[in-house]
Amino acid sequence: MIKYSGPKRIKTAVFISGTGSNLKNLVKFSKKKNFPITIELIISNNPKAKGLDYGKIFKIKTNVFNFNNKMIKEKEILSLLNKYKIKLICLAGFMKILSKSFIQKFNGKILNIHPSLLPKYKGLNTHARALNNQDKYSGCTVHLVNSKLDSGKIILQKKVKIYKNDNVRTLSKRILKQEHKLYPAAIKKLFS
Questions:
Q1: Residue 48, exposed/middle/buried by CB under 10 A (0-12, 13-18, 19+)?
Q2: Which of 56, 87, 107 finishes a domain?
């Protein structure tokens, strides 16, 4: 585990696949004086990811990797991370599963935000699954990434009440609001 000890900030890469709302939020927090990370790199597997626009807006280097040959691409990503002296990876809606060897090379230094109260509903379609099971609560979790899907050590969680008239869209919108609070809070907790 890396400890944050003062003014030198931890160089971070954010991996995205979509709209990048968690990325945008992390960038906003990284601009604050006492926040422990600085975002140096945005990596995506999707050339059409809207979140890549934040690279232009905030002047952060972006890279798109086609994951057709995962092993080759992961090697390229690792050399890019080394080049930029990246010490932390934040997965923010990144829809590819990283290999065991990639995760081991960055052991304990990859965070993910997941839209459920882990260990419940690992993987995809978390909101639909919570609604189908008539759960009273759902939420979001920030956890360390290990080689098992959505199974790493939990840093922080936030519960979100499910209402009778909720659907996937309304529930995901309310959970996303909490994700935007939880991710920065988890990063601060990790490095305090």
A1: exposed
A2: 107
CATH number assigned to the domain comprising residue 119: 3.40.50.170
* 75-123 pLDDT per residue, tens: 999 999 999 999 999 999 999 999 999 999 988 899 999 999 999 999 9
Place of tokens 């260990």: 119
Measured CA to CA, the distance from residue 17 to residue 51 in angstroms comes to: 8
132 and 85 both lie in a single domain: no
Q: Do residues 145 and 110 make contact, with C-beta atoms less than 8 angstroms apart?
A: yes
- Listed residue (44, 54, 50) closest to 77, CA to CA: 44
- Residue 63 sits in the same domain as residue 128: no
Q: Measure the CA–CA gap between 10 and 98, rounded to whole angstroms.
A: 22
- Contact present, 23 and 14 (Cβ < 8 Å): yes
pTM for the full predicted model? 0.94
Active site residues: 114
